[in-house]
Amino acid sequence: xxxxxxxxxxxxxxxxxxxxxxxxxxxxxxxxxxxxxxxxxxxxxxxxxxxxxxxxxxxxxxxxxxxxxxxxxxxxxxxxxxxxxxxxxxxxxxxxxxxxxxxxxxxxxxxxxxxxxxxxxxxxxxxxxxxxxxxxxxxxxxxxxxxxxxxxxxxxxxxxxxxxxxxxxxxxxxxxxxxxxxxxxxxxxxxxxxxxxxxxxxxxxxxxxxxxxxxxxxxxxxxxxxxxxxxxxxxxxxxxxxxxxxxxxxxxxxxxxxxxxxxxxxxxxxxxxxxxxxxxxxxxxxxxxxxxxxxxxxxxxxxxxxxxxxxxxxxxxxxxxxxxxxxxxxxxxxxxxxxxxxxxxxxxxxxxxxxxxxxxxxxxxxxxx
Length: 369
Prior knowledge:
- The chain is α+β, with helices and mostly antiparallel strands.
- It has helices at about 1-25, 25-40, 50, 115-145, 150-175, and strands spanning about 55-60, 60-65, 70-85, 90-95, 100-105, 110, 175-180, 185, 195, 200-220, 230-235, 240-250, 260-270, 280-285, 290-295, 300-305, 305-315, 315-330, 330-335, 345, 360.
- It is rod-shaped, with a radius of gyration of 49 Å.
- The two termini are about 75 Å apart.
């Protein structure tokens, strides 16, 4: 067994030595044959990755508007709102005021006892009538030269005084009646018929609810986006399951130095008279912004203390510094020297260097091949 194994080893060794000797003897022929065989092989026409540059995936830069949705809580007011007050003192003889009662401008809301004032008007009218008659008589006498000028002037003065007294008496009579200053709705009356009141006593609230004003605060950082006429969507717990459309009608001229906010006023149509002054409102506004370039989040790279993206132009990549504006649904809104349609590397950024060629492996949707 052992002798057989030794014999095989000797035989294999001899064969290897003989092969090596033959190869050495015919080494020129073997070299020529190997060179020819290698030259006959077809060459790959595709350049190597090292020659063509690192492979990358790109995406086109998009232009997006940096719009924001702003929400706030506001308080509502009537278009016009006042407190009715007594024009004079006295006893209330009639009261038409009731909660929610609607009145047109000039309608009678409250009547005070006006007996004395009516008598004063009648007396003033009588005095004016006598003064008028006396003035006319002296006017005739002066025309004929039978009356002195001084006496006529005295009669003329008496006539003017009588007319003024009548105007005052009529004004005092008018003050015994409280009338609606504009079209509106009264609130709860603070007095009753038969009460005696003094001048300027509060009687009731009076509101013009045809439109409702809602005021809210806007941070100063958003003032540049705010403008009169912007649409507002509002809702209130006082009217469930409904929203109301309005517009911004006024922007305060100052910023509160403590809160750093500005007061904004929106107006909502209330023709159906379902909204009430004083209610709280939730408001939502779409604030328009500037147009910025937007790139996928994967395109952003942070290096040397700044944010950058890689832009592909003429087959080469260039690093472009950008500023982050905000993130939005997988995209990043940035500010920088980018234009719509620029191709930005989103995958394969690890091996990139400024100015090197790259191999683009895809055609972005909407892009040119």
